Fold this sequence. Notes:
Elements: E1 5-7, H1 12-19, E2 31-34, H2 40-45, E3 53-56, E4 65-67, E5 73-76, H3 81-86, H4 88-93, H5 95-102, H6 107-112, H7 115-120, H8 126-129, H9 145-148, H10 171-178, E6 181-186, E7 189-194, H11 195-198, E8 217-223, E9 232-237, E10 248-257, E11 260-269, E12 276-277, H12 279-285, H13 292-302, H14 314-331
Bound molecules: flavin-adenine dinucleotide and iron/sulfur cluster.
The site of flavin-adenine dinucleotide has 32 residues, from strand 2, helix 2, helix 6, helix 7 and strand 8.
Amino acid sequence: MRAFSYGRPDSVDAALRGVAGQPGTTTEAAVKFVAGGTNLLDLMKADVMRPERLLDISRLGLDQIEEIENGGLRLGALARNADTAYDARVQARYPMLSKAILAGASAQLRNMATNGGNLLQRTRCYYFYDTGTPCNKREPGTGCGALTGVNRIHAILGASDRCIAVHPSDMCVALAALDAVVRVSGPKGERTIPFADFHRLPGDTPHIDSNLAADELITAIDLPAEGFADHSTYLKVRDRASYAFALVSVAAALKLDGQTIRSARLALGGVAHKPWRDPAAEAGLAGKPASLETFREAARVLLRDARVQSHNAFKIGLAERAIVRALAEAAGVEHS
Ligand SMILES: Cc1cc2nc3c(=O)[nH]c(=O)nc-3n(C[C@H](O)[C@H](O)[C@H](O)COP(=O)(O)OP(=O)(O)OC[C@H]3O[C@@H](n4cnc5c(N)ncnc54)[C@H](O)[C@@H]3O)c2cc1C
Ligand code: SF4
């Protein structure tokens, strides 16, 4: 592990002063915040990330879960994943989110991991972690080891010829489906980022994961009032029943009039560089009967542009079946 300096700011202002003047996005920053440390410290030990300075933000007090004026909830950036998932209001009003968080990692990790850190955790692509192999995300311009290597866990949607990695978070898939909003503080004050605009597709700059600037701090995640508590679910398909990242996951949420779909939200994890939503697939569900046939058509639309690599063609069929099953579970429709 390389030497780095360490500081522990005691206020948001002090934390922002510590990163003031850093150019670019947070992924490239030399001074990094550390929250639970469950991802960043592993990456530093593996020599994948090499910050010069760490600012421990765990004592900034941003760990509350509060009611907000729009009828939703504000999840503090430093609230632990476990405290968020087991919060009675989250469980009652946003069960899909609670389920998604509890599908991730292990109990010990969820006790340590924070909401802000979960958003900024980095890909689990094997080559990203292996500093002996090329990786455009780790070392821009070196190539992509996964393109010609083992790419079973990699993307089928939104990838580029520079990077085919997927975003590993479960929580973020549910947040995408809920249309959450990320609240950040920076040198110009506060701003909000709609969840869909927070993470990026790889394009020509796969080393940049998000649109958070290097001199900004996530302070909270706002959930809108609508939590789809009556008809929603999170389904995660993985190699082991626990303690494994998603091969494919689905956050599915419906508003129903009887057995007719009024509106739908559908987000996929494990298939792209960011949680994947498709307005056409969601719009196509509106006004249709909640039936397996309708759900199969939504899956077909959502996966129409899927592109496979040498080892991950199975993900298309897996994603189709997972979408149908998740929508059926959300709607309460019998599914074998
Ligand atoms: C063995 C293992 C299995 C796992 N399995 C899963 C899984 O199945 N599903 C899943 O979703 N996750 C899984 N995880 C990932 C885990 O959820 C993340 O490591 C965790 O959420 C990161 O949160 P943290 O607070 O520890 O972040 P840290 O490691 O402290 O930070 C991560 C990044 O976020 C930045 N950061 C943190 N907070 C802020 C903030 N407020 N503002 C700006 N930047 C910030 C840091 O600078 C750093 O770049 C697993 C992790 C491990 C180690
Ligand atoms: S898929 Fe992305 S993260 Fe993985 S080796 Fe290629 S460039 Fe690196």
